[in-house]
Each structure stands twice: as C-alpha cells, then as structure tokens.
Design a protein that fits this description.
By secondary structure, this protein is mainly beta. The chain contains one helix and 13 strands.
Length: about 300
C-alpha cells in the first residue's frame, strides 16, 4: 500500500512538474461596449418583448497565475473583481381582451393595446474566476463570473395606447374616452421593482498582448462576450398592462384605468454584454529556477 502511494505521488509530481515554473500576473483594465437583457414574454401575456442595447463600462483588477506547459504556451487561472455602470432597456407591446358589465347591466367587451419601454441605469460589481491561456502574444480567458447590479433606477413609459370598448347590443365601438377608459399620453413613471440581485454569467475574452520594452510589462486588447446562465429574477403575477375597472356609479360614470408594469409582462430575462477590454499587466516569475522578472515571451 505504501509503495502504491509512493508511485501515485511520483506520477502526480511528474504530471505537475511543468506547472511548478509559474508566473504571477497582475493587471488593471477597462472594459467598454454594449449590454442588454434577453427577455421572454410571460406565458399568460399576448404580445412581444425584446431587449434594447445600451452602453456599459467597467474598471477591473485581476491576478492570474500561469504554469509553463511548453514553449511558448502557458496556462493557469485568473481571479478578478470590477465595478462599472451602464444602461439598457426592454421594449414590447401587449394586447388584452376582457369583458366588463356596467351599472346598467350592459356588457362591454374591451380590447386594449399599448407599446411599453422599461429603461434602466445601474451600477454593477463583478467577481470572476477564469481559465487562462497564453500562446506567444495570444491570450484567452473563459469561465464563470458573478454580476451584481446595484443603485438601479428604472423608468417606465407607455405609448400608442388604444382602449376600445365595444357595446355588442348597439354595435358601437368607443375608443379612448374617459367614460369608457382613457390614459393621458405620454405616460411615464419611475418603477419600484427590483432587479435580480444575482446573475451568473459565462464568458470568453480573447485577444493579443504586446511587451513594453525589455521589462515584464505588457499591454493587451481583447474582445469579450458574456451571457447569463441563471439569475435571481422572480416574475410578478401576471396582470394586464392596461386594466379597466367596471363602471359601477351612475353619478360618476367614468372608467378607472390602472397601468401595470413591464415586470408583469416579462416572464423571464437574462443578461448579455460584449465589447473590448484594454489592460496593462506586469508579471513576476515564481519559478525556483528563475528569480528574475519576465514577460512570458520567448526570444
């Protein structure tokens, strides 16, 4: 048994020996590009939704460790954190059909349609752990990251509203009248719904690094893209975007209209971002055989 353990230990040491000559890399970078939600319409809703691309920017700090595999290839892992700010929106349209009965007992068949836009601005923090690979001047990272939005502001607006009340017994349509239901336009308000606190993303960054002189400093430029796999979003119970109450008072025969929110129309959404990352990095050799600072480039 002892001899078997010794053999296993020797085998693991043999496999890991190329990684013992490692390099620690510290970097500071900026990311900039676009971001958007990928929404899905709630099953009960009738209409459509789509994400509207907005901008995003981020500052990040990272530490990476690379083990030498074979010249000029090295691989390892990267840890990082960042903070940024951005904006985006969800747009859509809805249509609902329902029946009310007025105080005289007359059935009123409603059809309501409207376009909506839910705009968001928010700060975000990110934490990541990525597989990292270098091959000459080429550098690529891929893996999961956690995105945490905070300090969010939301603006909700509706347009192109049509509230059609149809009296079947009289064959009369009444559109957008106070007595049967109307909404002042433009209609806007700040939303109170909260964004998902946790967003689990998976992403890739790929590009090139260039050494700066003969020291261990490099500058890099990479394209990146991240897509959400899971988040803590909980859809609100479905309600009509435009709901008209029955007319029940002869002394005040006007129909009250309640405007819902985009949260009741969107069943689920996920996050997507993309753009470029520019960074400055310096590396320190951790090999016992090489105490000097190096870039990882072979000449």
């Amino acid at each position: 048994m002892i001899r078997a353990k010794q053999y296993i230990g020797v085998l693991l040491l043999f496999v890991a020996s190329p990684l013992l000559a490692g390099t620690s890399v510290f970097s500071i970078g900026v990311r900039g590009g676009g971001q958007m939600w990928l929404p899905q319409l709630a099953p009960e809703a009738n209409g459509s939704v789509r994400g509207d691309v907005g901008m995003n920017g981020m500052l990040d700090l990272r530490y990476a460790w690379y083990g030498d595999l074979s010249s000029p290839v090295s691989a390892g892992f990267m840890l990082g954190a960042g903070v940024g700010y951005g904006a985006m929106a969800i747009k859509g349209s809805t249509s609902d059909v329902f029946r009310n009965i007025d105080y005289l007992g007359n059935p009123m068949d409603y059809r309501t349609t409207a376009h909506f836009k839910q705009s968001e601005q928010f700060a975000k923090a990110e934490f990541l752990i990525l597989f990292a690979l270098r091959a000459g001047g080429f550098a690529v990272q891929l893996g999961p990251r956690i995105m945490l939005p905070f300090a969010a502001t939301r603006r909700f607006e509706i347009s192109n509203v049509d509230i059609d009340a149809y009296y079947e017994q009289y064959n009369v349509h009444v559109h957008n009248r106070v007595i049967t239901g109307a909404v002042e336009q433009p209609y806007t308000r700040l939303n109170s719904e909260k964004m998902p606190k946790w967003n689990i993303l998976v992403g890739i960054e790929a590009g090139w690094e260039w050494p700066l002189g003969r020291n261990a400093n490099t500058i890099g430029l990479q394209a990146y893209a991240d897509i959400g796999l899971w988040n803590a979003y909980k859809a609100a119970p479905y309600t009509r975007l435009l709901d008209v109450a029955p007319i029940t008072d002869a002394a005040n025969p006007s129909a009250k209209v309640t405007v819902g929110s985009g949260e009741s129309v969107v069943g689920f959404y996920n996050y997507l971002d993309f753009g470029l990352r520019l960074y400055y990095a310096f590396s320190v050799s951790s090999s016992k055989r090489h105490r000097h600072v190096r870039t990882g480039y072979r000449r």
